[in-house]
Design brief:
The complex is a heterodimer of chains A (152) and B (223). Chain A is an alpha/beta fold and 152 residues long. Helices cover 32% and strands 28% of the residues of chain A. Chain A has a 4-stranded mixed β-sheet with strand order 1-2-7-6. Chain A has a 3-stranded mixed β-sheet with strand order 3-4-5. In chain A, helix 2 (36-56) links the parallel strand 1 (28-30) and strand 2 (61-64). The longest helix of chain A is centred in the N-terminal third of the chain and has 21 residues, at 36-56. By secondary structure, chain B is α/β, with parallel strands linked by helices. Chain B is globular, with a radius of gyration of 16 Å. Chain B is built from 8 helices and 11 strands. Chain B has an 8-stranded parallel beta barrel, surrounded by 7 helices. Classes of the chains: A alpha/beta (152), B alpha/beta (223). At the A-B interface, helix 1, strand 4, strand 5 and helix 4 of A face strand 1, helix 2, helix 3 and helix 4 of B.
Chain lengths: 152, 223
């Protein structure tokens, strides 16, 4: 599985990995840009099961934006849809939608576009990385983040 | 702390990037890919690619721009059908820009999320409705386009008030750093411009410095 079938931003990811020298998206990437429920429905129950096993086995994976939120138990955005439950809690609606760039620790400055989320922006457990921001759209810092994940 | 966004609008007319005044083409700049490449390197925060005159190589150019664009890319220009938006997302758009068409906006938002939809409006349009699926509102002005006199501040304020809390992007007429600052003081969440990036040396750096001097947090970039 190279990329989980969510409806959007496949081209942005392919372009970002293209700039890193890959013809296509390597390893498992769950991109965002969908509502939580649409994402869960699109990946499907079997896909969610596979993804869960893949992650728990410590295989390389990158979960971006709504994909990062999938690590939680669920989201207020789509109360009926179930997340992976690898992280505890539910993603909540933000007081105001967040569109823009923000500095994240020592990692760099990254682009965020979301209306739901948690208090945390990143997840890193061995080769399994998750980020609320969009590294594929985050200029040189995003490029370096993806490169670091590829080398993890 | 969220950085305040400076957005570059690239106007595309039948294969060429152009400058406009009152929405009329005044000057051709060249092909889209090198323009987008330069804007990314200069450190703008987002790119909006707008087709103002159709051409057969539109989708080819969007795809080529996507390859070099390492920033959020919004694409617009006479998107009146869901299928056209879908094709643009598949080609490389992160967001689509749609003129007020509440049904189409809702349909796109249901599929791609409202962060993927920018509703655009001209300040002269009467009977404005904020579409429920749109994530942001791009406020443009025919009178101010290409005028180098700054945004239509009164109109911008009006739309900020009626945007229901959604981020508003100011567009049309901004040239000097103080124009961008005025847009932000009027309540815009982000500021956009087109022409200025093509004719003013170090435009990005100068504008961002102006924004920072006025107290806004901006994304630092290398160039």
């Amino acid at each position: 599985m190279s990329i989980a079938p969510t409806p959007c931003n496949r081209a942005s990811l392919q372009a970002a990995f293209g700039r890193l020298g890959y013809d296509d998206v390597p390893y498992t990437v769950v991109p965002g840009v969908a509502s939580f429920g649409v994402m869960v429905d699109t990946i499907g129950p079997a896909g969610i099961g596979n993804l869960r096993r893949h992650i728990l086995a410590g295989n390389k994976a990158l979960l971006i934006c709504a994909g990062f939120q999938l690590l939680y138990e669920g989201s207020e955005e789509s109360p009926l849809a179930q997340g992976l439950g690898i992280l505890p809690g539910i993603c909540r609606k933000l007081p105001t939608p967040r569109y823009g760039w923000e500095k994240v620790g020592d990692l760099g400055t990254f682009y965020f576009a979301h209306q739901y989320g948690s208090d945390t922006y990143t997840y890193q457990h061995g080769k399994v990385w998750g980020c609320q921001f969009h590294p594929e759209l985050s200029g040189p810092d995003g490029h370096n983040y993806l490169k670091a994940w590829l080398q993890s | 702390m969220l950085c305040t966004r400076l957005i570059a609008v690239v106007l595309w007319a039948d294969g060429l990037v152009v400058q406009t005044r009152r929405f009329r083409i005044t000057n051709a700049i060249g092909r889209a890919v090198p323009v987008v490449e330069r804007l990314c390197a200069w450190g703008v925060d987002e790119i909006v690619l707008l087709s103002i005159r159709p051409g057969h190589d539109w989708f080819t150019d969007v795809a080529a721009c996507r390859k070099v664009c390492n920033l959020p890319l919004a694409v617009g220009g006479n998107i009146h059908k869901f299928d056209m938006a879908r094709r643009l997302f598949e080609t490389g758009a992160d967001m689509v820009v749609i003129r007020t068409n509440t049904q189409l906006i809702l349909k796109i938002a249901e599929r791609y999320g409202s962060q993927a939809v920018i509703q655009s409006i001209d300040v002269n349009v009467h009977g404005f409705t904020m579409a429920s699926g749109s994530g942001q509102l791009l406020v443009n002005s025919l009178e101010h386009d290409g005028g180098r006199d700054g945004y239509d501040i009164a109109a911008l304020q009006r739309f900020v008030e009626s945007s229901g809390g959604r981020p508003v992007i100011g567009m049309g007429g901004a040239c000097e750093p103080e124009h961008f600052v005025a847009g932000l003081r009027a309540g815009a969440n982000a500021v956009a411009a087109g022409n200025v990036f093509h004719y003013k040396e170090h435009a990005t750096r100068l504008i961002k410095r102006g924004m920072a001097d006025a107290g806004y947090v901006v994304r630092e970039t290398g160039l």
